[in-house]
Design brief:
By secondary structure, this protein is α/β, with parallel strands linked by helices. Helix content is 39%, strand content 17%. It has an 8-stranded mixed sheet, with helices on both faces. Strands 7-10-8-9 form a 4-stranded parallel sheet, with helices on both faces. Helix 1 crosses helix 13 and helix 8 crosses helix 9.
Length: 321
């Protein structure tokens, strides 16, 4: 069977992404052809800075079906950018470039009948401009997907926030049986398809120690009955558990995935445990979308000190699928 290409969208041009991209190519040879959607001029600047020598092969987006692809060269779909205006700091001036790289990426998936997409980091503040909570929601809307989940994946332990990039004061209003049910089913399907197992899922409570001084306790009134219902349907799920002790070694080893009620409740401990050895996978799409688990890191641009491990793990994961 022909190996499907991995499409890589650059994302924010004022970021460490091209540095870690070139470092990830040095790390190993991948079976899947890799296509980078970025500025050719910007790529050449980074190759010169890092003394990275490899041929570049320009690819025509509209003629992908007739293009022979391999990784002997860096396959590039060029997206023009005004480097004089866009290489100072992260601003909304990069938005047209970012949008175009995403549009080209989705078109390339369709043209090649591929299911593998990686995107570099973006600045939510500048690119999304409060229209979407995060890139997960941006891509879901672009692909007309209603049910989706953010999975921060590591072979040993993964996490999924029930709510993503929303203010803490709004979190409680999004905690309901339907939302939990959707996330659990997406996680379960992903693990069955990709790991051939039914995952052991632990659910964290919203309140400290799953207790509340208010009359209404979300952990008792919403989460407990929702978890009970899912367990009765055959899912390997339990909780709610207190978040302050769930990530202790003796507790976390009992689970493949931990679902938290909000972003930092689960992303802080997973990044503390694995640092860059995790990838952000959007579940529910009709393709596999992954992003390295870090941001643009504007302060590290040009220092050649950025760790490429998360992108390497993304490439390795897609190389097997």
């Amino acid at each position: 069977m022909k190996v499907k290409p991995i499409i890589i969208v650059n994302g924010e041009p004022n970021s460490i992404f091209l540095e870690i991209f070139l470092k990830s190519l040095k790390f190993k040879n991948y079976k899947s052809p890799v296509i980078l959607i970025s500025s050719l001029e910007l790529l050449k600047i980074y190759m010169k800075k890092l003394n990275f020598k490899k041929k570049i092969k320009l690819i025509n987006l509209n003629n992908l079906k007739n293009t022979k692809l391999d990784n002997k060269s860096i396959n590039v779909i060029d997206v023009k950018i005004n480097l004089n205006k866009n290489l100072n700091k992260i601003t909304s001036k990069s938005n047209f470039f970012i949008k175009k790289t995403f549009d080209f990426g989705l078109q390339a998936l369709n043209n090649l009948k591929s299911n593998k997409l990686i995107n570099g980091p973006i600045s939510k503040k500048n690119f999304l401009d409060k229209e979407y909570p995060g890139i997960t929601e941006y891509i879901a809307q672009k692909t007309k997907i209603k049910k989706f989940a953010m999975l921060i994946y590591n072979k040993k332990l993964s996490v999924c926030p029930l709510t993503t990039h929303i203010p803490i004061k709004k979190v409680a209003s999004f905690i309901n049986k339907k939302n939990l049910d959707e996330k659990v089913r997406l996680i379960n399907n992903f693990y069955i398809k990709n790991r051939k197992i039914k995952p052991r899922i632990g659910v964290l409570g919203l309140n400290p120690h799953c207790e509340s001084t208010d009359k209404f306790n979300e952990d008792d009134k919403i989460l407990k009955p929702a978890i009970k219902s899912l367990k009765e349907k055959g899912f390997k799920i339990s909780g709610p558990f207190s978040a302050d002790t769930m990530f202790l070694k003796k507790n976390r080893v009992k689970f493949d995935v931990i679902i938290g009620m909000y972003h930092d409740q689960v992303l802080t401990p997973i990044k503390t445990l694995f640092e860059y050895d995790a990838i952000n996978i959007t579940l529910g799409l009709n393709f596999i979308r992954i992003s390295p688990d870090h941001g643009p890191n504007e302060k590290m641009i040009g220092k050649n000190k950025s760790n490429p491990l998360s992108l390497i793990r993304a490439l390795e994961f897609l190389d097997k699928h």
